[in-house]
Amino acid sequence: MTSASQTASLIHCELQFTATQKAGKVSALWLQPRAAYAVLVFGHGAGAGMRHPFMQTMADRLAIRGVATFRYQFPFMEKGSRRPDSRATLLETICSAVEAAAKVAKDLPLLAGGKSMGGRMTSLVAAEGRIPQIQGIVFFGFPLHATGSPSSDRGAHLADVKVPMLFLQGTRDRLAELDLIRPLCGRLEKLARLHIVEGGDHSFHVLKRSGRTDEEVLEELAGTAGHWIARCTSGVFAQSV
Fold first, then answer.
1. In the predicted model, is pLDDT for residue 239 greater than 60?
2. CATH number of the domain that 128 lies in?
3. What is the pTM for the complete model shown?
């Protein structure tokens, strides 16, 4: 939770930017601690928007650690649709979001990523060399394959990403079998770090019998991401585990 004193030290506002010429404007949320040292351009997943409790909580916890966030909507979510946009629209929106965040962030280092789809789409844009402004990518659950159809095909493009990547993956994630995500990260060598969240599913929920709480997992995610972002922006690449 964010205390009253911490809230008072935050700069936060809602703004809009043009996602694509055809899709028009979408909303974004800027949250910046006054002593911020980096910015995460933070995309949501396929099933929930930028105001989802996970997105909000992670933004709050990253702010405590000095990381500002630029959360944004994809056009389909802005319109209230449950059907994600075409890949071309998603990728162009990410490019626009990074450009919009850069204007607000001024001289702060930029990273990008997101929850599930938001993170994977960000890596596709990065693999194409379209967001050279960013210094790293954070995946809150990389969706490597469909449920029940294990494959590494969706991760093939990661070999073309030229910036450090942090993979935060739960042991019960049915969209990323650990037997597949581990060797994938291993092939990426020094550009990838894999952090395993014991008991977490794709949404990072844990079972009661695990002896852990969702709050503890969220704190682990924010702490790991914050530490990695600090190392990344200081030029120290995290190693794969």
1. no
2. 3.40.50.1820
3. 0.93
